[in-house]
Amino acid sequence: MKTIKLKINGIETEAPDRTPLLQAAERMGIRIPTLCHHPLLEPYGVCRICTVEVRIRNRVRMVTACNYPVTNGIEVFTDSERVRRNRRMILEWMLARCGHVPVLNRLAEEYGVTEPRFGRGDDDCILCGLCVKVCSEVVGANVLGFFDRGPNRTVSTAYDRTSDRCITCGACAQVCPTGAIRIKDDQEGIYQAMPMGPLTSINIDFMQAVPRKAVIDRDSCIHFKTGKCQVCVDVCEAKAIDHKQEDRVEEVEVGTILLTTGFQLQDPRVLKEYGYGKYKNIMTSLDFEVLNNAGGPTAGKILTADGKVPKSIGIVHCVGSRDQKYHEYCSRVCCMYALKFAHLIKEKIHGCEVYNFYIDMRCFGKGYEEFYNRLLREGVNFVRGKVAEINDAALDPSEEGKLIMRAEDTMIGVVRRIPVDMVVLCLAMEAKPEAKHLSHLFSCSTGKDGFFTEKHPKLAPVSTPADGIFIAGACQGPKDIPDTVAQAGAAASAALSLIQRGEVETEAVTATIQEEMCSGCQICVGVCPYTAITYDKGKNKSSINDALCKGCGTCVAACPAGAAYQKHFRDQQIFAEIDGILAI
Amino acid sequence: MAYRAHCLICTGTGCVAGGSFNLRKTLEAEIAKRGLDREIQVITTGCQGFCAEGPIMIVQPDGVFYCRVEERDVPAIVEEHLLKGRPVKKLLYTPPTEKAPIPALKDIPFFAKQKLIVLRNRGLIDPDRIEDYIAVDGYTALGKALTQMTPEGIVLEIKRSGLRGRGGGGFPAGIKWETCRHAGQVRGVAPVVICNADEGDPGAFMDRSIIESDPHSVVEGMIIAARGIGASEGFVYIRHEYPLARQRLQLALDHAREFGLLGKNILGAGMDFDIEIREGAGAFVCGESTALMASLEGKLGEPRAKYIHTVEHGYQDRPSNLNNVETYANVPLIILRGADWFASMGTGDVKENPWNGSSGTKVFSLVGKINNTGLIEVPMGISLREIIFDIGGGIPKGRKFKAVQTGGPSGGCLPEEKLDMAVDFDSLTEAGSMMGSGGMIVMDEQTCMVDVARYFIAFLTEESCGKCTPCREGLKTMLDVLTRIGDGKGRMEDLGLLEEMGAVMQDCCLCALGTSAPNPVLSTLQYFRHEYEAHIRDKKCPGGVCKELITYGIDPAKCDGCHACVRACSTAAIMGEVKKVHTLDVHKCIKCGACIEVCRRDAITRT
What we know:
The structure holds two protein chains of two kinds.
Chain A: E1 3-8, E2 11-16, H1 21-27, E3 51-56, E4 59-64, E5 75-77, H2 81-97, H3 102-110, H4 130-139, E6 144-147, E7 154-157, H5 171-175, E8 184-185, E9 189-190, E10 202-203, E11 215-216, H6 222-226, H7 231-235, E12 257-259, E13 263-265, E14 282-284, H8 285-292, E15 312-319, H9 334-348, E16 353-358, H10 368-378, E17 381-384, E18 387-391, E19 403-409, E20 414-420, E21 422-427, E22 429-431, H11 435-441, E23 469-471, H12 481-501, E24 511-513, H13 523-527, E25 533-536, E26 541-544, H14 554-558, E27 564-566, H15 571-583
Parallel strand pairs in A: 1-5, 12-23, 14-21, 15-16, 15-21, 16-17
Antiparallel strand pairs in A: 1-2, 3-4, 3-5, 6-7, 8-9, 10-11, 13-22, 18-19, 19-20, 24-27, 25-26
Helix pairs in contact in A: 2-3, 9-10
Chain B: E1 5-10, H1 13-17, H2 20-33, E2 40-45, E3 57-60, E4 64-66, H3 74-83, H4 109-112, H5 130-135, H6 140-148, H7 151-161, H8 173-187, E5 192-197, H9 206-213, H10 215-229, E6 233-239, H11 243-258, E7 263-266, E8 271-280, H12 289-296, E9 320-324, H13 325-337, H14 339-343, E10 346-347, E11 358-359, E12 361-368, E13 374-379, H15 384-391, E14 401-406, E15 413-415, H16 425-430, E16 439-444, H17 449-463, H18 469-486, H19 493-508, H20 512-516, H21 519-527, H22 529-538, E17 552-554, H23 564-568, E18 574-575, E19 583-584, H24 594-598, E20 604-606
């Protein structure tokens, strides 16, 4: 594109022909105030604050910098007395509508408008149109529009009703310069000020994720809802974004497999008595970790949903674990991380009361009991008893807005009622629902809790009945990070020893199918617990993989044609043995 | 068949409202009853212009002008005039200052000083018959343009004629056509021709009357423009409130298509062009070019910045040539008689540069406190005094002239000392008003200039689209300040504030509606500042209009006790016995003005 010369505030500069004046000025570091401009949107040019003076061959024109295309030889004055007079008046007009909008007041102060001559109005919307434009141009939902005209103009949805086309993407609230748009959740009142989930549709799972790459969440991405947006494509300098990518199924041939599919947290909504999702400021242990993380939504500050520093926090142990109704087992890690939370809260918020509600403290292991004793000295309150209920039923004004925790303190034998600002639920670790399916796929089994079972609890803690398939971590049972790392190391070395050898030792006693007798009925395929039998459609015959067969003999017994036989235990051999015995 | 006489009945909107359609029926029935239907033909024509005196009927070939004709007058006209050849005296026009009626149209001063180019066929032809238009040389210009001229030649001819846009801006049409043609060729995109018939100024009805009286002149002008520019598609954007004009225009388009003047291969010259009518929904701002095109596209009718011109990127991003009704109606005669003929009328030498002056004529709708309300066409350069006092017949009831407002709601008010100024685009702008599309509102001494400014600002506030801040908020605050002054609560610093607001709006508004909106305030402040000061300092309204500042009274010297005002007063504020001087209770009076309307002796005072 052709480059042209122009002068801004007396300084010569160059810019591509017909670039918007605002851009050309910004490139020189000259700030021109605007209230209706957004880099992602076509200039709308309505606030008129960016009006500047342009001299073209001795003719003076007042133009809006946001959409005026620069041409060769123009001379621009962005801050002349005439420009400032206009801005002052426009700001006074805006204040007459929206007298209490911070962004307006800041700008007005900059231009010396302290006492607007037309008074101060109570509206929040300056009618800049950014929300309307982002909704139609970028999001493509076309939910917002202008209504009526002149001074009665407003921004709204059609017929002022909630629109079913709104995808609650929040783009309008984000671009609004005055904060006039708030997003309300129909079910839960005010939308959480600090969402615990990913803040945007594009996110990096967590700081330590491998590979540490951003991914797009299809469920919340605007493009997958309306077909528009794609703002990320425009701003990504590496041109790395491709919305057409699809999940791929890849086949990889391997010698050994490590099952490390992990766990999930108990759904806190099931425990209705604890009011998760009903009241603000009740969070799971994982939510608290995110909140407390320096890279989290509050940069590591512990704050309530209203952005206040809590004065008291309750921590509930054994939520869903050690409980006949949910999981009988102990989740093993909760006591210790609950102590860690209490310690961190005490460290970050001076004078904050922390209440730990526990059944009994399980501080096994190196240094754990010492840590518990230290917390006792730090003044953390320990209440022995299971929390019966959490609600917001305040008895007096001082309890207004607080969460009331009720629990029996079995140490002193009374029912206690403790109001707190925030509650952390230490949820049970539980097996993932898909573990059952995986266990079929990998010929291993799951216990009654749904965790994978190892071959032998003492002698083969990382092996499964299937050769070459190993398990490690919380998919085998609840455990903390050190235990997981130790088990994973063991599983890896077991796998490596198999790879190192390069060959597999098969069982001496395995089954074989005599091809000529096989009718292709596939009964054996279904009964084999080790998925060792495959059916060849072309030949209409089944055959057994020696490396997988454990010689259990199930197929031999099941085969109606008598085609399957067990090495060293063939019918003739057994009959000969019987004959031998009977011959005595 | 030859008739010995023709009765031309005006069917412009004004006369139709007066009952001219029924008049025609009655007249035809009466003529038939007398057995004259083979001798006398009744024709309905478009607007004659003299709307104040409607319904109007002209009897040709005598050229006798009848005004305020009612159905009950029909037998007299037939009996006296059509049978016996004696004009009916009581229906003839009598100027307000004289006693003797003027029988012939050509002798009536309202018509005598006019020069008809755009309105050449008014009252001559039936707008519903294309044959009538063709009979008066209609479509001859199109034939000439298609067979004897190149498209470049057409554009050059218009450029040399100096024809400037009659919609208000006064941009030379030839230059616009040239740019549009060029943009179409460079970009390889077919241009469109659009006619702006969204006439929204209060008190203006030029475009409506042109379409109602001579729709084919607009159609012909558009076809010639399309030929010059290279367009094959055209639109007329007309407001919904003009049903009669729309209907006549639609009929004209249908006839033109029937006659091969629209559609494929026009006049066998290989040109394809057609016109579609689109209706506006009644927003004043849709007369602005970018808002009009947004509306034409089916979008919200609001303007956009014009740093990229619509002649290059307009309707559907195509090069778009937008002219108003009157501009197109001028085109056929320019082509037919030549640019030199057109340029010879008006002011300045425009042949080299159309910006040098204003050529041709201009149609004005003359309204307000004036005797001869109506539609007039005058040569550019005529003085305001000639328009108001010669054609318009002066101010009614012998009152004094105060101001004339030109250019619609965003125009300015000019005082008596500007009356001798020549009317053209540049001198009006220089005086702080504008040509606009040709509204002309005359105000007498009983008009309050603060109230006038407030009225126009209120109109514009309502019609502002609200897109940009200075127009939306500026007009509203301006209205607040003007209302305050009118209520007697103004402060002297308000005058400076109004001027400052006006200056900022002129600098910063997005479209011409906003930048010209302060004109009524700024021009009244310039020429009638003393009236503002009287409102603020003396708490007096010199025009006797602003209710808060006036009190009604009865002049005992004039009151003859006729009791008319007592009957008219809705709050029983006036008391008195018949034939004795009445009195008025100022505490009960709501200053509605009903008593003034009925008082025959001008005895009610407002001070």
